């Protein structure tokens, strides 16, 4: 399983179980994101800590939107995955090595 797949699997699990997205989960998401950055499946130009913070915030917001909306859970999860994929995937396949932690 790629680091990217592990990240999306964890997102699915959080959404499916409606798990609280606390500091521990945010740290876990950041570590998964770091792995995806290392293997080139997530954009290496992002700051992993900031991206992890925003990913956690997006998941918390998704739960609020899901509670308030009329959308089916599967449709909402599909939309969330598209947003995450378009935001975190590299814009170019020929990226330089990661700059974080240098």
Topology:
Elements: H1 3-17, H2 23-38, H3 48-68, H4 73-88
Helix pairs in contact: 1-2, 2-3, 3-4
In short:
The protein is mainly α and 102 residues long. The protein has helices at residues 3-17, 23-38, 48-68, 73-88. It has one domain.
What can you see in these coordinates?
Helix 2 crosses helix 3. The chain is mainly alpha-helical. The mean pLDDT is 84. The chain has one domain (3-88). It is globular, with a radius of gyration of 14 Å. The protein contains 4 helices and no strands. Helices cover 67% and strands 0% of the residues. It has helices spanning 3-17, 23-38, 48-68, 73-88. This is BetI-type transcriptional repressor C-terminal domain-containing protein. It comes from Aeromicrobium erythreum.
Question: How is the main sheet built?
Answer: none
The percentage of residues in β strands lies in under 5%
Question: Helix-strand pattern, N to C?
Answer: HHHH
Outline, from the CA principal axes? globular
Mean pLDDT: 84
Work out the helix count.
4
Helical coverage, percent range? 55-70%
Oligomer: single chain
Q: Cα-atom Rg, whole angstroms?
A: 14 Å
CA-CA gap between termini: 27 Å
> Got a strand count?
0
């Amino acid at each position: 399983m790629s680091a990217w797949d592990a990240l999306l699997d964890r997102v699915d699990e959080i959404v499916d179980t409606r798990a609280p997205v606390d500091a521990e989960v945010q740290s876990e998401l950041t570590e998964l994101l770091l792995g995806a950055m290392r293997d080139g499946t997530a954009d290496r130009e992002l700051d992993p800590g900031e991206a992890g913070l925003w990913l956690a915030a997006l998941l918390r917001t998704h739960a609020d939107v899901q509670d308030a909306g009329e959308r089916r859970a599967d449709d909402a999860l599909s939309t969330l995955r598209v947003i995450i994929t378009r935001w975190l995937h590299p814009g170019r396949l020929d990226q330089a090595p990661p700059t974080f932690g240098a």
